[in-house]
Amino acid sequence: MFFGCHARPDRSFYFRGKQFPICARCTGELIGLIAGIPIAVIWGWPKFYIVVLMMAPLVFDGFRQRLTSYESTNMRRLFTGIPFGIAFIFLLIYFHRTCFMIAAEILKLFWDEPQRIDRALELFI
Prior knowledge:
The protein is mainly alpha-helical. Helices cover 70% and strands 8% of the residues. It has a domain at 2-88. It contains four helices and two strands; from the N terminus they run ββαααα. It has a two-stranded antiparallel ribbon with strand order 1-2. Helix 1 (24-43) crosses helix 3, helix 2 packs across helix 3 (74-110) and helix 3 (74-110) packs antiparallel against helix 4 (114-124). The protein starts with 11 loop residues before the first strand and ends with a helix.
C-alpha cells in the first residue's frame, strides 16, 4: 500500500498494460504535490480559505461515492486529486508558519529582547 493507497485495479490507471502503483485519485494528489512546490515558490500561496476550497472537490467526490451509490470516474478522481495535492503543499506551508509563530511567542516569554525574535521570525515566514 504505497502512498497510503488501496491501489484497486478498477480505480487505477494502466500504462502499457501495467497498473500504476497508486489509484487515480492518489495519482492526482501526487501530481499536485509535485506541482505545488514550484507553484508556491514562484507565485506564493493563496489565502487559507482558497486552500480549503481547492480541497473541497476531492472531499465532496470521495464522500459522495462513499455514502451513495454514485461511482466516480478515474478521470474525475485524477482531476479532483490535482488541486487537492497543490492545496496540501499550501497547507504544509501554513502549518510551518504557524509552528514558527507559536515558537516565537513562547521564546518571547523567556527572552529579554523580543524585537530580536521578531526580526528572526521575519526571515522564516
